Structure formats: C-alpha cells, structure tokens
Amino acid sequence: MKLAGALALAINRRSQYPTDAADGAGQDGSSDAGVAPLRVTVREIMLAALLHDLGKHHEDCSPFLERIQHVDLRADTMADAERRRYLLGVVRDVHCRKGPCMIDRLRDGGHRELHNPFIATVARRHGDDYQVNRTACWWPREINVITIADDYDAIMSAGPERAYKPKRVTSDEAIAMLRAGAASGRYEPHIAGIFIDDVLDARQP
Predict the structure, then answer these.
(1) Which positions ≥6 away from 138 have C-beta within 8 Å?
(2) What is the pTM of this model?
(3) Residue 133 in contact with residue 125, Cβ under 8 Å?
(4) Among the residues of 17-77, which ranges form H helices?
C-alpha cells in the first residue's frame, strides 16, 4: 500500500512539474514531458492496494493457501517448481474472482468508499499485464501502479508466503526484473521508470 501510494504521488508530482527531455530523462531513458496525472486519487490507489488481495481470505482459497504452507516455494527441483506454479496459479485465479465479491459485500454493508468501481476492478485485474489491461479496462495505468508495487514487494520478500520467484534476489536484480517486465509489456515503461527513479532511489540510505 505504501509503495503504491508513493508511486502515485511521484507520478502526479511529475505531471505537475514536467521537465524537458534534455533535463528530465530518467534511468529508463524516458523524459517527463508526457506524464499524465492519474485518473483516481492517491487515497483511492492506496485503498485499492490495501484490498487487492482480499480474495485470499475467501473460503475457496483456504485449501490452497494451506497447501502452500507445506511447500518450499523456493525449491529448485522440477517437481517442487511445478507444484509452486500450480498452487500460485490457482490462488491467483481464485482470489482475483472472489475479491470483487467480498468488496461488494463490504460496500453493501455500509462502506460507502467502496462504491468506487476502481476498487473492485483492481482486485479483479491487478495480476494482469499492462498490455492486457490497456485493451480490457478503463484504468490500465492506475492498476499498473498497484501491480508494480505489489510485484516488487513480492520479489523482495524474505518470507515463503510472498515468494513469487524461486530464489531470493538483490535490489539490483529486482530492478532488472522490473525493466524486463516493462520491455515485455507487463508494466507501463514510464511508470516503471518513475518507480525505479523516484520511489526506490528515495528509499536508499
């Protein structure tokens, strides 16, 4: 949630104070000239980031999450790798379908802030690539903000419950993965560059 909020702030800050291509080129080689502000508020980004994995608490996800606890998600053997991919794939599919339903129940229970369709859309589509979302929904950039922050958190996590990669990686390796994701269409390249330049650099001691 904090990383997504920081990225949203950085995007909106650049949109308000653009620089020219000569002075504003980031590490990804892009300039700030074309940065558009997000179409939802930073508060909505953070709320969506907070609730995007709500579906993991649905009863349909429980059996698979329980099995994950008994699997070494970082194991390198073929059998364990296949088991890891299968279990994570099922959990992703189930929680992306059940999350919006749970958000709808909370909304119907009186949580007015959840009437915003963006919140449920993020719960449904946060795992999809940017290139997929840009043709399938109204908020591809805004959803990608949360996807980038969530992926980075997962990549850097030390615990097995967030181990989407089979081995621990360094911060430089994580940044390389983000750049590769931007090149492949998983991330919007300019947003990924802002995350690397503005958010991650700001966290360095």
Answers:
(1) 121
(2) 0.80
(3) yes
(4) 42-51, 62-68
Number of domains in the chain: 1
Q: 162 is in which domain, residue-wise?
A: 2-203
Question: Residue 116: how many CB atoms within 10 A of its CB?
Answer: 17
d(CA 32, CA 73) in angstroms, rounded, equals: 39
Share of the chain above pLDDT 90, in %: 50
CATH number at residue 55: 1.10.3210.10
CB 68 within 8 A of CB 161: yes
State pLDDT tens for residues 102-147.
999 998 999 888 999 999 999 999 989 999 999 999 999 999 999 9
Report how far residue 200's alpha carbon sits from residue 174's, in angstroms, rounded to the nearest whole number: 11
